[in-house]
Design a protein that fits this description.
The chain is mainly beta and 493 residues long. It has three helices and 38 strands. The protein has three domains: 210 residues, Jelly Rolls; 206 residues, Jelly Rolls (Sandwich), CATH 2.60.120.200; 59 residues. Strands 3, 4, 5, 6, 8, 9, 12, 13, 14, 15 and 16 form an eleven-stranded antiparallel sheet that branches. Strands 17, 19, 20, 22, 27, 28, 29 and 32 form an eight-stranded antiparallel sheet that branches. The longest helix is centred in the middle third of the chain and has 10 residues. The radius of gyration is 31 Å and the shape is flat.
C-alpha cells in the first residue's frame, strides 16, 4: 500500500506511519530537525548517501562478549549492556540469520538488543537495512519465541545528543530505516525499548554528508477555520462527504453574543458514522512541528449532554473534539456537557486526564493544546487555565489536524467559532538602543542637553555643556532598558 503525501513523495515519513508497509517512526529531537525515511531508494536519492559498510563480513560470533566490536568500511560496530554477544554473519551450522536481507547480517544477543554504529567522520544522514522475521532462520524459536520489538535510534556527536526517533518495522519483510539531519553526527545508537530476547537483524549501512534543508516557503501554516465560513472553502476536508447522519451549517450571532460559528452535529452511532474536518500535513510541516512545537486552539460551544461517567466518557463516546496526529502519537481532546451543565474535557483514552468545570457547559470556551518540542508533551488550557500535560497516545495514521465530532459511538455536536493549528514561533522583540538629539546652534553660544525619566522628576545634565558652531549639532544617548525618557536643550547664559 502506498499513500501519496506531498510532491509525489511516497513512503517518506516524518515521525509518522504512512501506509501498511511503512515503518512507524516518531521524532524526538532535542535540537536538530530530522527527516525519517522508510524507502531506501528515496533516501539515497534525497541524501546522496552511499554504502559505507559494503557487504558485512561473515565473522560469526565476534569475540569480546559485551565489549565486542568490529570495523567494516567506514563504520565501527559495537554493543552495550545488557547485550552480551555480537554477530556478523551466522555461526555454523547456521547458514544465514535470515533470507530477507542479502549477505551476512548483524545480530545481537541479550535480554535487550543494543547496537552502536560509529562513523569514521561526521555525517548528516545514515540508514540501514533491517529485518524482523517472526521465525528465525537459525532455529532459535524455542529459546526466544517471537515478540514484536520497538527501537529508539539516537544520533550523537561525541557525547552530545543530536536527535532521536523511534521505529517499529513491519515483520517478515526487508525494511529500511534512514534519517537525515540538519546537524552533523558521528554515531548512531540503536536501543530496543520494547520486545523480548528474540533477534532482529541489521544489514548494510549507508551514510551521506548533505544536511537537511527545509524551505520555509513549503511550510504554509497556520491552518485556520473562522466563523460561519464553510470549512470546505477554507481548505478543510470532510471525513465523510455529505453524511446523512450529520447536521452541518453556518450559525450567525450565536447566543445573541455576536459570535458566528460552524455547526457540526453527529447523529450516528455506528462505524464509520463520524463527522470530522481535517487537513493533512506535508512532510516538511511535520518536521517543523516536531522541531519547533505546535499549538491547536479552538473556540467552540458544546451542544447536547452526555450522561456517561467521567471515566466512561473518556473511553467511550465524546463529541465534539479536536486533535492532532503526528503519525505515531495522537493528541486528542474531547468535550461534553453534563445534565447539570458542567463542562467535561478529557484527553481521549486517558481516564486519568478528565477535568470537570462546574457550570461552564453552555457557553463558548477556548481550548488550547500547546506542544513543547523539548519535553515532547502537550498541555491543555481552557480559557487560559492549565488543565493537564500528557505525552499523547499511541496511534498510527497519516499526520492530520482534525476537529468536529470524530467519535463513532457517541452523538453530539458543537458550534466551532475558530480553529487554528500553527507552529510555535519565536517572539519578536524590538528595542530602541539609543536616540539622537540634534538642534541648530549659534556661534559664541553654549548649550546644555538635559534629560529626565519622568515628567515629575528634576532635569539632570546629559554630558558636559556643548559650544555652538553655527550649524546643527547631534549627540547620542543610550536608552536601552529605559521605557521613557524626556529631553530638552537649554541655552546657558
Amino acid at each position: 500500500m502506498t499513500i501519496q503525501l506531498h510532491h509525489h513523495m511516497t513512503k517518506r515519513i516524518l515521525s509518522t506511519l504512512v501506509g501498511v508497509s511503512s515503518l512507524i517512526a516518531a521524532a524526538a529531537t532535542a535540537n536538530a530537525a530530522i527527516l525519517i525515511f522508510t524507502d531506501k531508494c528515496e533516501f539515497l536519492t534525497a541524501t546522496a548517501a552511499t554504502n559505507c559498510t559494503g557487504e558485512l563480513p561473515n565473522l560469526g560470533l565476534v569475540s569480546g562478549g559485551a565489549s565486542a566490536s568490529f570495523q567494516t568500511g567506514q563504520v565501527t560496530f559495537s554493543i552495550a549492556a545488557p547485550a552480551w554477544n555480537l554477530y556478523s554473519g551466522a555461526p555454523a551450522p547456521c547458514l544465514d540469520w535470515t533470507a530477507l536481507l542479502p549477505g551476512p547480517d548483524i545480530a545481537v544477543s541479550g535480554t535487550t538488543e543494543t547496537l552502536n554504529a560509529a562513523f569514521a567522520s561526521t555525517v548528516f544522514s545514515a540508514g540501514f537495512d533491517f529485518a524482523e522475521p517472526t521465525r528465525s532462520g537459525c532455529g532459535t524459536d524455542a529459546y526466544a519465541p517471537f515478540s514484536n520489538s520497538t527501537f529508539r535510534v539516537t544520533l550523537k556527536l561525541g557525547v552530545t545528543n543530536v536527535a532521536s526517533f523511534i521505529f517499529d518495522a513491519p515483520n517478515d519483510v526487508a525494511a529500511f530505516v534512514g534519517v537525515q539531519s540538519d546537524a552533523a553526527f558521528d554515531r548512531m545508537e540503536i536501543r530496543e525499548i520494547g520486545g523480548a530476547g528474540e533477534d532482529e537483524y541489521f544489514g548494510q549501512f549507508y551514510c551521506g554528508t548533505i544536511p537537511l534543508r527545509i524551505d520555509p516557503r513549503s511550510i504554509d501554516l497556520p491552518f485556520i477555520h473562522s466563523g460561519a465560513r464553510d470549512p470546505l472553502l477554507e481548505g478543510w476536508s470532510l471525513a465523510n462527504p455529505a453524511p446523512d447522519f450529520a447536521i452541518l451549517g453556518p450559525v450567525a450571532d450565536d447566543l445573541g453574543a455576536g459570535i458566528d460559528a460552524w455547526h457540526v452535529e453527529d447523529l450516528g452511532t455506528t462505524w464509520p458514522q463520524l463527522v470530522s474536518y481535517g487537513m493533512v500535513l506535508s512532510p516538511e510541516q511535520v518536521v517543523e512541528a516536531n522541531h519547533r512545537g505546535w499549538s491547536l486552539t479552538a473556540k467552540l460551544r458544546v451542544l447536547g449532554t452526555n450522561t456517561l461517567s467521567d471515566e466512561d466518557f473518556c473511553h467511550s463516546g465524546w463529541a465534539p473534539g479536536i486533535g492532532y496526529v503526528d503519525g505515531l502519537k495522537n493528541w486528542a481532546v474531547g468535550m461534553d456537557r453534563t445534565p447539570t451543565d458542567d463542562l467535561i474535557v478529557a484527553a481521549v483514552h486517558r481516564p486519568d486526564l478528565v477535568r470537570r468545570i462546574p457550570g461552564a457547559g453552555g457557553g463558548y470556551h477556548t481550548y488550547k493544546m500547546a506542544y513543547d518540542a523539548s519535553s515532547q508533551t502537550a498541555s491543555l488550557y481552557v480559557d487560559g487555565q492549565f488543565q493537564f500535560t500528557w505525552q499523547g497516545t499511541n496511534y498510527t495514521a497519516t499526520p492530520r489536524v482534525s476537529w468536529g465530532c470524530p467519535s463513532t459511538p457517541d452523538t453530539g455536536g458543537g458550534h466551532f467559532s475558530e480553529v487554528v493549528f500553527d507552529l510555535n514561533r519565536p517572539l519578536l522583540s524590538i528595542q530602541v538602543g539609543c536616540v539622537d538629539i540634534f538642534w541648530d546652534t549659534l556661534t559664541n553660544k553654549t548649550y546644555q542637553v538635559e534629560s529626565r525619566s519622568e515628567l515629575t522628576n528634576a532635569w539632570t545634565p546629559l554630558g558636559p555643556p556643548v559650544p555652538g558652531t553655527g550649524s546643527r549639532i547631534c549627540i547620542t544617548d543610550s536608552v536601552r532598558g529605559q521605557p521613557t525618557k524626556f529631553y530638552r536643550v537649554v541655552l546657558l547664559p
